[in-house]
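// run 5 | inverse folding | seed 20
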């Protein structure tokens, strides 16, 4: 996460004067999705930790500014509900490729039926990274039923959960009743669809968490398996979490529609290369025509400008929109987006750029201390 910020700090923007640019064009289209600026809202799982109604509030905030939102596989609301909150504003669906292939197909089908305009397969989290702060706190929101709403609303997942709930407990397995265990059971039951009292009596909430933990990650995921995705959906497909130019090339060879350069906000591999440092090589590798999106470290409109100048077609806004959500719900999300886009617009004016396509490395200077 720190490297992401350091990478931005090594670039300076070079203002240009007297270009007579009274009006700038920020509208962008990516794979058929129109957006008022080259910005999308990134998928962030378990945002319910921050505020109730999280994904729905994010959707409302994004829609208020017409900004596409990439729904997370680890969302706190079923995609169908979040889709409704988007109104006419387009959205994409981010998929974590489960180890159950039928669940993968079911999620893709639901995304298509809900109206998603693209599928983003996140490939950098086939196992969770080593996260000392979470480990110190013993924090895994999914284990308390937070961030598994896409699963508990899925027919295939519910069938697997029901199977599991009917299976006899392994011999010798006993529950120890501790305050922590009671709190966890309560949390699972509260978040499981339906009424709390019935959920407390039902084996399903707990079986759902166990089923989820069994199949949500897929460390065996490979290029060969990913190659099947284009025949399983009519949507454009991007992969998220690319940092090496060879991986970007491979994605293009497979016929995928785009790559998202991202180090997951520094949450996966400690000391990983900054996403911004990877961006230039990825753009060079795939050429000018392939869709390359970017996230990890964007905090201001100036950051958006730098990432676009280094080859991104558009950027995803991660943590900042969640800060907006925490402070002011949907309106906070909208304000964060609007503020970043307003700054980008002004910087374009002050660097003599009329359209997003004109933003290029000519407007950048590599800081001397970084050489
Ligand atoms: C709390 C948290 C949860 C996230 N959950 C997901 C997720 O469910 N799916 C996904 O593809 N990326 C997820 N990401 C990564 C973001 O989509 C994005 O890549 C990252 O936030 C960018 O870094 P930044 O927020 O520091 O700019 C998550 C990031 C955070 C901080």
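// decoded
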């Amino acid at each position: 996460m720190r490297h992401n910020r350091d990478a931005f700090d090594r670039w300076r923007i070079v203002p240009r004067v007297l270009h007579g640019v009274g009006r700038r064009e920020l509208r962008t289209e990516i794979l058929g999705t129109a957006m008022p600026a080259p910005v999308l809202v990134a998928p962030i799982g378990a945002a319910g930790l921050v505020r109730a109604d999280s994904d729905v509030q994010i959707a409302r905030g994004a829609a208020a500014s017409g900004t596409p939102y990439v729904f997370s596989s680890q969302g706190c609301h079923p995609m169908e509900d979040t889709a409704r909150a988007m109104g006419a504003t387009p959205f994409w669906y981010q998929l974590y490729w489960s180890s159950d292939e039928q669940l993968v197909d079911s999620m893709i089908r639901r995304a298509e039926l809900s109206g998603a305009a693209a599928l983003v397969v996140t490939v950098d989290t086939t196992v969770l990274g080593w996260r000392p702060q979470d480990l110190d706190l013993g924090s895994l929101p999914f284990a308390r039923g937070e961030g598994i709403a896409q699963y508990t609303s899925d027919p295939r997942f519910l069938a697997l959960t029901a199977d599991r709930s009917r299976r006899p407990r392994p011999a010798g397995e006993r529950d120890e009743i501790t305050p922590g265990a009671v709190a966890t059971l309560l949390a699972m039951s509260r978040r499981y669809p339906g009424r709390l009292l019935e959920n407390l009596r039902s084996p399903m909430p707990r079986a759902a968490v166990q089923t989820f933990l069994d199949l949500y990650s897929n460390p065996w995921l490979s290029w060969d398996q990913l190659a099947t995705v284009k025949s399983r959906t009519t949507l454009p497909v991007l992969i998220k979490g690319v940092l090496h130019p060879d991986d970007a090339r491979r994605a293009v060879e497979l016929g995928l529609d785009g790559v998202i350069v991202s180090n997951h906000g520094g949450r996966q591999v400690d000391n990983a290369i900054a996403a911004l440092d990877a961006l230039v090589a990825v753009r060079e590798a795939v050429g000018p025509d392939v869709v390359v999106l970017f996230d990890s470290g964007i905090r201001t409109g100036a950051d958006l400008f730098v990432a676009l100048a280094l080859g991104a077609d558009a950027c995803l806004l991660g943590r900042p929109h969640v800060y907006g959500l925490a402070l002011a719900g949907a309106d906070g999300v909208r304000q964060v987006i609007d503020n970043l886009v307003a700054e980008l617009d002004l910087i374009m004016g002050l660097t003599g750029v009329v359209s997003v396509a004109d933003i290029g490395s000519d407007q950048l200077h590599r800081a001397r201390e970084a050489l």
